[in-house]
């Protein structure tokens, strides 16, 4: 699966996960695959790729260590 397709799959996985959680609790890979008409490998690739697309503040790691940037 191309990187672009994996990136496009992430919102679909998020929606399907939320929808299936309402019915079954936390969905399994086979349930997601069935819901999205994909195979299990594609679901796993999409989930792994989705982890790389989360964003966080550039300052978050500094805050966790107790370091803060101070204006000069």
Q: What letter string, H or E per element, gives the SSE order?
A: HHHH
Shape: globular
For the secondary structure, the number of strands is 0
Number of domains: 1
Largest sheet: none
The secondary-structure class comes to: mainly alpha
Q: Give start-end ranges of low-pLDDT stretches.
A: none
The tally of helices reads: 4
The CATH architecture comes to Orthogonal Bundle
Round the Cα radius of gyration to an integer and report it: 17 Å
Query: What is the highest CATH level, the class?
Result: Mainly Alpha
Summarize the structure.
This protein is mostly helical and 72 residues long.
Provide an overview of this structure.
With 72 residues, this protein is mostly helical. The chain has one domain: Arc Repressor Mutant, subunit A (Orthogonal Bundle). It is 65% helix and 0% strand. The protein has four helices and no strands. The model has no long low-confidence stretch (mean pLDDT 80).
Question: Which key features would you list for this structure?
Answer:
mainly alpha; Arc Repressor Mutant, subunit A; 65% helix; globular; 72 residues
How would you summarize the topology of this molecule?
Layout: H1 3-24, H2 29-36, H3 40-51, H4 60-64
Helix pairs in contact: 1-2, 1-3, 2-3
């Amino acid at each position: 699966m191309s990187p672009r397709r994996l990136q496009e799959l992430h919102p679909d996985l998020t929606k399907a996960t939320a929808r299936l959680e309402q019915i079954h609790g936390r969905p399994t890979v086979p349930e997601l695959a069935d819901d999205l008409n994909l195979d299990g490998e594609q679901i796993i690739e999409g989930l792994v790729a989705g982890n790389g697309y989360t964003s966080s503040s550039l300052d978050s790691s500094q805050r966790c260590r107790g370091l803060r940037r101070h204006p000069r």
